[in-house]
Design brief:
alpha+beta, four-stranded mixed β-sheet, Immunoglobulin-like, 9 strands
Length: about 160
């Protein structure tokens, strides 16, 4: 009986320690670059006018065209059903962004590159942060030759 109790105690102790070591927050890095598809020799350049927003993903479908304006002007994404998101949990105005202590969960990263007053290129992707991820890196390249507005996320 004592051996059984001791074994159960050790199992509970080991299992409890494993869960305590799981991180509740992660570090998310987002790097924003741009290129010109018509000139491959130009290569990828870090954006000097990047805006990165991290929104909690609530499972609704995002209206990318409407969100182009609502994220920039209202700091809220617009969903296909016409509702709007909460404000972003984090944001930054940099081409290389490190967001520390982001709680585990599902998120939408929204990126805007605004090199000139009338030029806005946007994109987004989903990311899931899980215990023990440590560092999650997302890199995106926006194509300056595409029309203003939303374009599909292109990993670098």
């Amino acid at each position: 009986m004592k051996k059984t109790f001791l074994m159960l105690f050790l199992i509970v102790l080991i299992t409890g320690c494993e869960k305590e070591n799981e991180s509740l927050t992660q570090t998310l890095m987002v790097n924003v670059s741009y290129t010109y598809s018509s000139n491959p020799d130009y290569g990828d350049k870090l954006s000097d006018k990047a805006f990165v927003f991290i929104f909690k993903d609530n499972g609704k479908e995002v209206d990318n065209e409407e969100s182009d304006n609502s994220v920039i002007f209202d700091l809220k994404m617009t969903y296909k059903d016409g509702t709007k998101s909460d404000s972003p949990i984090r944001s930054s105005e940099s081409s290389v962004n490190t967001f520390e202590d982001v709680p585990n969960g599902n998120y939408i990263i929204w990126v805007a590159h605004i090199p000139y007053a009338a030029t806005v290129k946007t994109t987004s992707t989903k990311v899931s942060l899980k215990p023990n991820d440590d560092l999650v890196i997302k890199k995106v390249v926006l194509d300056m030759d595409l029309p203003n507005g939303y374009q599909v996320w292109k990993d670098k």
